Amino acid sequence: MKKVKTIALVAHDHRKRDLVEWVEWNWQELLKHKLICTGTTGRLIEESLQKKKSDVADHIQLTRLKSGPLGGDQQLGALIAEGKIDILIFFWDPMEAQPHDVDVKALLRIATVYNIPTATNRSTADFLISSPLIDEDYNPILFDYSHYMNRKVF
After folding, report:
1. d(CA 107, CA 103)
2. pLDDT tens, 133-148?
3. Where residue 51 falls among pLDDT bands split at 50, 70, 90?
4. 87 and 125 in contact (C-beta within 8 Å)?
5. pLDDT tens across 91-118, in order?
6. What is the three-class DSSP state of 93?
7. Which residue intervals of 61-144 are DSSP H helices?
8. What is the mean pLDDT of residues 68-86?
């Protein structure tokens, strides 16, 4: 990971307000990094920053993908597998079943496979964003899955 991180931001419907507030609170740190959001979450973050800090909204690097249920979670998973995401901030709602639960599970699984720092709640996101490693180069240790890839399946 380079000093400038690519941070994925995702939130379920009942947690979107919480994530937007978190972004508003941490905008100065986030301004140093590249943001990738699923569709609705990205739109809400952009709108919020434009209302509260219009000058910031012009400088923040934010890319919006499709909405989660329309493939945004899978797009993020593909970006993680390609080594293009450094951190995942995913505020999910543990009390509400999602129509795309399998995609959510797959996203969390691929983030674990590639050893991506992942925050699934505000407290963990606070720890990640305030870590001294956020502004430094960092080389995560990746598990060697070659034994899995080379196994005989017949």
Report:
1. 6
2. 999 999 888 888 877 7
3. confident
4. no
5. 987 777 766 677 778 899 999 999 999 9
6. coil
7. 72-81, 101-113, 122-130
8. 92
- pTM for the full predicted model: 0.88
**How many DSSP H helices and E strands does the chain contain?**
8, 5
For 45, other C-beta atoms within 10 Å of its C-beta total: 26
Strand partners, 64: 37
Task: Write the CB contacts of 1 (distance below 8 Å, at least 6 apart in sequence).
Answer: 86, 137, 138, 139, 140
Q: For residue 141, give both structure tokens.
A: 């240790």
Tell me the C-alpha distance between 21 and 103, whole Å.
Answer: 25
Q: What backbone torsions phi and psi does residue 15 show, to the nearest 5 degrees?
A: -120, 0
Q: Are 76 and 100 in contact (CB under 8 A)?
A: no
Catalytic residue chosen out of the listed positions 73, 103, 137, 144 = 73
Q: Is 144 a catalytic residue?
A: no
DSSP for 58-76 reads TT-EEEE---GGGTHHHHH
- Could you give the domains of the chain? 6-149 (3.40.50.1380)
SS3 at position 118: strand
